[in-house]
Amino acid sequence: MPFIEGEDRNQISLLPYTLDDYISDDNPVRVIDAYVDSLNLEELGFKTFSGRNAGLT
Q: In terms of residue numbers, what domain contains 30?
C-alpha cells in the first residue's frame, strides 16, 4: 500500500469559499444557472419571502 500524503493542518480553510469555486468556468451548469436567473419567478407563480411568517400562506 503506497503512502498517503496528508493535508496541511495549518490551512486557512477546509472548503472553498463559494460554490462557484467547485464549478469550472466552462461547465454547462452555468448556462442553466444564467437561464434560471433570467426568469421572473413571481410571474410564474412563485412567492418571495417577506416578513416573519416563513412557510405560511
A: 15-41
Assess if residue 4 is contained within a domain. Answer: no
The gap between the terminal CA atoms of the chain, to the nearest Å, is 59
What's the domain count of the chain?
Answer: 1
- Residue 44: DSSP 8-state: T
Q: Is 29 part of any domain?
A: yes
Query: Please, which residues have CB within 8 angstroms of residue 22's CB and are 6 or more apart in sequence?
Result: 16
- The whole-angstrom separation of Cα 4 and Cα 10 is 18
Amino acid 23 reads I
Summarize pLDDT for 13-55 with one digit per residue, the tens: 777 778 888 889 999 999 999 999 999 988 999 877 767 766 6
